[in-house]
Each structure stands twice: as structure tokens, then as C-alpha cells.
Amino acid sequence: MLLLKRKIGDRILIGSDIVLTVISEGNCQVRLGVQATARIAIRRPEDKRASILNRKSVNSEESIGAET
């Protein structure tokens, strides 16, 4: 893991397709802006967990419907 100190407005380049910009900081939080080309999907980990939980719920409902 790479740890960096940056100030508001500073940018971090990841490859040639992704730019992270420090938007604000305070109250033990940092806000980042993410710019990427359209071919790169940007997802938050909590979105993935919600998608997995939703998929499990749908599969569970489908199996209940198959039993009746």
C-alpha cells in the first residue's frame, strides 16, 4: 500500500486513464474526486456488497417460488 500526503486540489495519476483529486478534508474524512475514461468502471466496495446481497435475495426468492 502506498500512503501519500496531499493538499486540497492536488492530484494523483494512476496510469494514464485515472486521476484522483483531493476535494476536501476535515472531521477525519477526505473527499476524493475520480476521473476516468468511460471504459473504466468505478465502483465503491459497499456497492459491491449491496449487489451481492441483492443477488442472494433474488436467488432465495427464486428458489422459494420454485418450491410452490
Automatic annotation (TrEMBL):
InterPro entries according to UniProt:
CsrA, CsrA_sf
Per UniProt, what is one Pfam family of this protein?
CsrA
Origin: domain of life: Bacteria
Gene Ontology terms, MF aspect? RNA binding
Q: Which GO terms describe its biological process?
A: mRNA catabolic process; regulation of carbohydrate metabolic process
By what name is this protein known? Carbon storage regulator
This chain's source organism reads: Telmatocola sphagniphila
